[in-house]
Write a structure and sequence with these properties.
Order of helices and strands of chain A: HHHHHEEHHHEHEEH
Radius of gyration of chain B: 18 Å
Structural class of chain B: mainly alpha
CATH architecture of the largest domain in chain B: Orthogonal Bundle
CATH class of the largest domain in chain B: Mainly Alpha
Number of strands of chain A: 5
Oligomer: heterodimer
Number of domains of chain A: 3
Shape of chain A: rod-shaped
Distance between the termini of chain A: 107 Å
Number of helices of chain B: 8
CATH topology of the largest domain in chain B: Rna Polymerase Sigma Factor, Chain: A
Number of domains of chain B: 2
Structural class of chain A: alpha+beta
Number of strands of chain B: 0
Largest sheet of chain A: 5 strands, mixed
Largest interface: A-B, 31 and 47 residues
Shape of chain B: globular
Helix content of chain B: over 70%
Distance between the termini of chain B: 40 Å
Strand content of chain B: under 5%
Strand content of chain A: 5-15%
């Protein structure tokens, strides 16, 4: 293309003029120049002709109907890409589960060896309290809850000892103190007046001790002989705790209860019983 | 409301999870982006792929969009880069010296003189150096200003003008008889 030489404006300026890329002031100046300069005007005309030809040649027409589905195809790709991004980058083969299982086992062992702190309420029953073998005591359980998971007899008075359950001593004490009866609804009975027990009523506790130290709740034991024992212990504990709750600042939210028996033993009610005592008593009062 | 403000509003709605808002942006720019890709790639299927991919990439990168640029300029940059990738891939698969020359059509009898001229112009554009060809093709539909082209190619505006000048000089010399 022949460029105009020795003119006021460069070829690039003329090109920008032809492309409409100049600011208004410069465009006006060049327009005035073109009116009097045939060479520059011819150059601009050639540029415009070439541009028009290029535009014509490069008009990229799509096949008929192409754009009607373009948007939905893009949407489909976006959905597929998004789904692929949300998918895990790789999947574990089966052997990959081995280290995962090992890690899970380790976590389980650590968890089992770690005691979860639970608020504890310790109740000391009066020395004269006895749990009779008579039939006069009602057979009780917990309403709506199987009392198969029973509490544990604990061999000693001291709390540290109480945490270490001795099954043999517990069995002996249990055989002496408790009769086995089938579980029955006891929620109402728990709320009802204390059942007749042989010996002095436990309604007047002589020693109550509330402690804030944490112990693990007792593990669930065998069902043998437990419903009635639990219910009687619960009733005794309930009475004692009720009295204690009348005093301020008692841990009414206690979930683990240790009942110190008159004979020097200690008893942890089953978790259900402990929970029932701790939860129901404040509202029952 | 200006075009840029309208686009910005649609982008904000799309970012907020409004799918149809992004659909409107696709509808608005699909022809221009397809045309750009078609010019760059000279093939419908490749252009279709690049055009769709442009909108998919733009969708997932919408948060990175700088509203100081026109949305179409941003889309054009994505499309241009995808086309360059596609061209590189094609060159890798089909060596340049083995690539067939652009042809006007299968049956010359059906080709009009106009089409012959257009094919010749396209062939001349394809013979330009890549940097000049890119500037000519980005400028072809006049949708992109010099400033937009400098943003797409990430080169100074003066370089855009000089590349365009050199490309036009070469094209004019080769196509003088049809202009």
């Amino acid at each position: 293309m022949k460029e105009p030489k020795g003119h006021s404006y460069s070829f690039e300026q003329l090109q920008a003029f032809a492309d409409g890329a100049l600011d208004d002031a410069l465009a006006r100046d060049i327009g005035r120049h073109l009116a009097g300069c045939g060479e520059c005007r011819a150059a601009v005309d050639r540029l415009r002709a070439l541009d028009a030809r290029i535009g014509q040649a490069e008009s990229a027409d799509a096949p008929a109907g192409y754009f009607e589905t373009f948007g939905s195809r893009v949407a489909g790709r976006i959905a597929a890409r998004r789904a692929a991004k949300e998918r895990p980058l790789f999947r574990f083969p089966l052997w990959g589960l081995i280290p995962a299982a090992a890690a899970a086992g380790l976590v389980l062992v650590i968890a089992l060896r770690t005691e979860t702190p639970v608020p504890e309420l310790t109740v000391r029953l009066p020395p004269a309290t006895r749990f009779a073998r008579t039939e006069s005591a009602p057979a009780t359980g917990l309403a709506g809850s199987p009392v198969a998971a029973a509490g544990k007899m604990l061999p000693a008075v001291g709390q540290k000892e109480a945490r270490h359950h001795d099954p043999a001593a517990a069995d002996a004490r249990e055989a002496d103190a408790v009769r086995t009866e089938p579980a029955s609804d006891s929620r109402a009975k728990l709320a009802a007046p204390e059942p007749p027990l042989t010996g002095p009523s436990p309604a007047a506790p002589t020693a109550l001790q509330a402690r804030s130290e944490a112990v693990s709740p007792p593990a669930a034991g065998p069902a043998r002989g437990t419903p009635r024992r639990d219910s009687r212990m619960a009733i005794a504990a309930r009475t004692a705790i009720k009295a204690r709750l009348r005093a301020p600042a008692e841990p009414a939210t206690a979930r683990a209860i240790v009942i110190h028996l008159p004979d020097g033993g200690a008893y942890c009610p089953a978790p259900e019983v402990a929970a029932a005592i701790a939860i129901e008593l404040p509202t029952d009062d | 409301m200006s075009e840029q403000q309208n686009d910005q509003q649609l982008i904000e709605r799309a970012l907020a999870g409004d799918g149809p808002a992004y659909g409107r942006l696709v509808t608005k720019y699909q022809r221009a982006i397809y045309a750009l890709a078609r010019r760059m790639l000279r093939d419908h299927d490749l252009a279709d792929e690049a055009a769709q991919e442009t909108f998919v990439k733009a969708y997932f990168a919408l948060k990175q969009y700088d509203s100081s640029f026109r949305f179409y300029t941003w889309l054009s940059r994505i499309a241009y880069n995808l086309c360059c990738d596609s061209l590189k891939e094609r060159k890798r698969i089909i060596p340049l010296d083995a690539a067939p020359e652009p042809q006007s059509g299968d049956d010359p009898l059906e080709e009009t003189a106009q089409n012959d001229t257009c094919a010749r112009i396209r062939a001349q554009i394809d013979r330009l150096p890549h940097d000049q060809r890119a500037v000519v093709l980005l400028r072809a539909d006049k949708e992109l200003s010099y400033e937009d082209i400098s943003s797409v190619l990430r080169i100074p505006m003066g370089t855009v003008m000089s590349r365009l000048h050199r490309a036009r000089q070469a094209l004019y010399g080769a196509l003088k008889d049809v202009l």
